[in-house]
């Protein structure tokens, strides 16, 4: 399929798609959120990252990966020599699924129906952007990408052949790296993540 790049078509279509997603009521998750957090990045990006869902800060800002996990992600990308501004970053689920405890909003992991309802948007993002490489960050993104439950440790480290010669990669979610309890192990896991990103960047 020829990729539309240097004319306005893809960008116009992307803006229309985002606009439509801002009013999404396809599933109940929109009810108790600030806004849809749609993907962002250039429409001709060759590398796409898929996260899980917006967190508290993303819900407020309306942008993906701007909270604590996002900061780690930004640092890791920089160390891996990847310019985030040239990548497309999105989430499997575009509304913040959470429960309220007092004033706090506690993250809830999206389940299969949430992922399936939101696949509507991810599918259209994939069709518009047509990335050559797609990186799923964590199990939810992996499930959204492959349509089945994934075991990260079994799949990470090697590309998965997708339709139209697209390379898929599955790796850990940055917030996993924030949660590793043992400090030495945390450093190891972070290093492994950066190495993986570097390796993926070299495939472009
Ligand atoms: N975690 C995600 O998976 N996505 C975000 O946008 C933020 C945190």
TrEMBL record:
Residues in Uracil-DNA glycosylase-like domain copies: 38-198
Family membership: Belongs to the uracil-DNA glycosylase (UDG) superfamily. Type 4 (UDGa) family.
This protein's name: Type-4 uracil-DNA glycosylase
Organism, scientific name: Sphingobium chungbukense
């Amino acid at each position: 399929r020829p990729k539309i790049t240097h004319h306005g078509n893809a960008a116009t279509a992307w803006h229309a798609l985002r606009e439509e997603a801002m009013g999404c009521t396809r599933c109940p998750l929109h009810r108790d959120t600030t806004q849809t957090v749609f993907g962002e990045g250039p429409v001709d990006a060759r590398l796409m990252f898929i996260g899980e869902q917006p967190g508290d800060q993303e819900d407020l800002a309306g942008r993906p990966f701007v909270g604590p996990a996002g900061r780690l992600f930004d640092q890791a990308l920089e160390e891996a020599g990847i310019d985030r501004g040239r990548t497309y970053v999105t989430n499997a689920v575009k509304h913040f699924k959470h429960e309220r405890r007092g004033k706090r909003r506690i993250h809830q992991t999206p389940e299969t129906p949430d992922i399936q309802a939101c696949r509507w948007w991810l599918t259209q993002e994939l069709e518009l952007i047509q990335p050559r490489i797609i990186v799923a960050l964590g199990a939810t993104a992996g499930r959204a990408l492959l349509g089945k439950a994934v075991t990260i440790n079994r799949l990470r480290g090697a590309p998965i052949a997708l339709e139209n010669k697209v390379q898929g990669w599955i790796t850990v979610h940055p917030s996993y790296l924030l949660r590793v309890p043992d400090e030495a192990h945390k450093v190891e896991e972070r290093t492994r993540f950066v190495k993986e990103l570097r390796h993926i960047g070299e495939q472009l």
